[in-house]
Amino acid sequence: MAPQPSISTKKIGVISSIECGQSFTDALEGALNYPVTYYFDKVGYDNQLLKDAVNSFNADTNIGLIVTFGGKIAFAAANSFAKKPFISLTGAPPTTSDNRTDYCLGGVSLESYVHNQPIAIPVTFGNGTADVTVTDGSNPFKVDDRVSFTGGNLPNNVPANQAFFVTTVGSGTFQFSATKGGGAIQPASAASGINAWSIKNRIVALKKDPSNISLLYHSASSLIGDELAQWRTNWPALDGYFKAGPGGPAIPINVRKKLVYAFDDVPTDAVIISADPYFQENKEELIQAANASSKLVCYPLNNYRNRSGKNKPSHAVVYGPKLEEAITQIGSLANTFLAVTGANTITQQPFTPIYYPDPK
Questions:
Q1: 30 and 84 in contact (C-beta within 8 Å)?
Q2: How far is residue 261's CA from residue 221's CA, in Å, rounded to a whole number?
Q3: 179: which residues sit within 8 A by CB, 6+ positions away?
Q4: Residue-wise pLDDT tens for the chain (360 aa)?
Q5: Do the beta carbons of residue 343 and residue 323 sit within 8 Å?
Q6: At what angle do helices 22-31 and 323-338 cross, to 10 degrees?
């Protein structure tokens, strides 16, 4: 790899497609050992404005390191036009097709949408129960979790890819019982199989059992390709979900349509909200519309709890980290690069993922 560009001054400029409110600036500056010279925020999806922001920071001798917030569109602008080092907070790490330049030193990616997949766990079946082997020393199951068995030597009454609900959880032995329609696991003898643990079954707690799940995404987003590819290829077919293939309906909405109508075209009782920054920036209106729709909504960031806001989510699963946690990590990463002195070499780093393995 070619030598990385040097940092001319130990000061930072921030470019963001969304507003850098007090909690965001506090998170960044609280983690930094170096000053922020300027915030250029609320740029939105204006590519020319993003280009101008990057070029203005290129020309500013008081800025040595550029930091971008607000997703892939801000990263893409820096990656195309930056003439000094930068780091980014994105929804997904850059891919080969993004042609990451040497000026991009690294970043943090919010990858809950990638990691929210069933995890393969070895299982030994007994009469009415299953014993789980885990590597991290903790029992991964709770009552009402939705589980499915994807292969291996399965009991006769445990079809593959059919959803079961955990009814009891053993203590210390990592043993659980699973039933569907009143029938417990009843193998003739112990057998081994593979269990895939799906997302926590908040649907049951909310007395909702939709026949399918939709994805609501922003049609102007640079995330579209990554999100739809994951949605249509990596989601498993569980009992009642995605029986026609991976992913349910993907419903677009654009900035010209008021968010009060965002759920009018969603045909399912449950919907997952894209992690696009546009939705986070307008979460008050989005949450209000979601609550009025009475649909089960899965939000991609803890920020959608909206504790200090007007509208609080109901009938909802909140799945993902707080943006402030990721911004704090960006601040720590900036410290790493800005601390390099003299002839020491700055080493380009991979993007660090931050995500929650469980919905909250």
A1: no
A2: 18
A3: 164, 165, 167
A4: 445 667 878 899 999 988 888 989 999 999 999 988 889 998 888 889 999 999 999 999 999 999 999 888 899 999 999 999 999 998 878 877 788 888 999 999 887 656 555 556 777 887 778 887 765 556 667 776 767 776 677 777 777 767 677 888 876 567 788 877 657 777 655 555 655 444 444 444 444 555 577 889 888 777 677 777 777 765 554 444 555 555 678 888 876 667 888 898 888 888 888 888 888 888 999 999 999 998 888 888 888 888 888 888 887 877 778 889 899 999 999 998 988 875 567 778 888 887 665 444
A5: no
A6: 30
H or E segment and range at residue 184: strand 183-184
Place of tokens 């250029």: 40
pTM assigned to the model: 0.71
CA distance 14 to 74: 10
End-to-end CA distance of the chain: 41
Helix (H) or strand (E) holding 278: helix 277-281
How far apart are alpha carbons 338 and 13 in whole angstroms?
13
How do strand 119-125 and strand 191-197 relate by DSSP bridges? Answer: antiparallel
CB 3 within 8 A of CB 345: yes
Of 260, 241, 257, the C-alpha closest to 249 is 241
Q: CB neighbours of 301 closer than 8 A, spacing ≥ 6?
A: 110, 275, 280, 318, 320, 321, 322, 323
Tell me how long the chain is. 360
> What six digits make up the tokens of 75?
């990263």
* AA identity, residue 277: P
For 340, how many CA atoms within 13 A lie in the half-sphere containing its CB?
19
Asked if residues 50 and 70 have their Cβ atoms less than 8 Å apart, the reply is: no
**Rounded to 5, what percent of the chain is helix, strand, coil?**
25, 25, 50
Of 80, 87, 90, 31, nearest to 64 by C-alpha is 87
Which strand ranges, in their side-by-side order, compose the sheet holding 12-16?
Answer: 36-40, 12-16, 65-69, 86-90, 104-110, 352-354
